Amino acid sequence: MRGIFSQLPADSLAAAMAPVAERCERLDWAVALQSGPLRFPYYDEDHPDRLLSYHHVEGPAPMHWFGRGFLPRYADCLVLDEWSYYVGFDSRLVGAAELAERLAGDLSPGARLFDAVARHDLLYLLRVDAGWWEAYAADGDTLGRLRQGWPGREVSSRRWVDGTWRLGTLGPH
After folding, report:
1. What are the Cα distances from residue 150, in Å, to 7, 9, 17, 123?
2. Low-confidence residues of the chain, pLDDT below 70?
3. CA-to-CA separations, 153 to 8, 48, 135, in angstroms, rounded
4. Are 72 and 14 in contact (CB under 8 A)?
5. In the 8-state DSSP scheme, what is residue 51?
6. pLDDT, position 46
């Protein structure tokens, strides 16, 4: 699967989503963040934006997900971890329970995840604190918009499946 690799200057999920913000707004989002998903004080149910109404947990291997309209509007409310994973999906086409089962609750890059991206027209964003973002989508228009909006280059998901990615090099080989 084709993807885009970038060392974006802004360390922000909202900035990473900006080139495809319109599509992102129409998706539900599964997220995997060790230190979150939401930053304090957003756990407060009395918060005026009522962010917890967007937050759900699904599956036997818990998968955090947020309802349509949460991202990119509230992107800055999510924790950015050393490794952050975001999967955009249309819950009318693939439900959260089915997605959680397909992925076994694991949103890290691998064969199972990239198969689901291709099969269900998902959008996958990956952030590595060492300095890069990656995005994968079966939709060529989405990749084209990201290519225009991100300073970066095209990569293949094979690097994650066959283990040829390298952290110390800040990017693909």
Report:
1. 8, 9, 10, 15
2. 9-10, 36, 39-62, 130, 166-173
3. 11, 40, 11
4. yes
5. G
6. 54
Beginning with the edge strand found earlier in the chain, give each strand of the sheet holding 55-58 in spatial order.
55-58, 63-66, 28-32, 83-89, 123-128, 132-137, 2-6, 152-156
Nearest CA to 27 out of 79, 85, 92 is that of: 92
Q: How far apart are CA 35 and CA 17, in angstroms?
A: 21
* b (16+ CB within 10 A) / e for 54-89: bbeebbeeebbbbebebbbebbebbbbbebbbbbbb
What is the predicted pLDDT for the residue at 104? 87
Q: Which residue's entry shows tokens 């539900």?
A: 28
Cβ neighbours of residue 9 closer than 8 Å, sequence gap 6 or more: 151
State the Cα angle at 105 between 114 and 88, rounded to 5°. Answer: 55
What is the C-alpha separation between 82 and 150, in angstroms, rounded? Answer: 20
| Residue-level pLDDT at 86 | 95
Q: Tell me, what's the pLDDT at 168?
A: 45
Where are the alpha helices (H) located in 52-139, listed in sequence order? 96-103, 111-120
What are the residue boundaries of the structural domains of the chain, listed by start?
A: 2-160
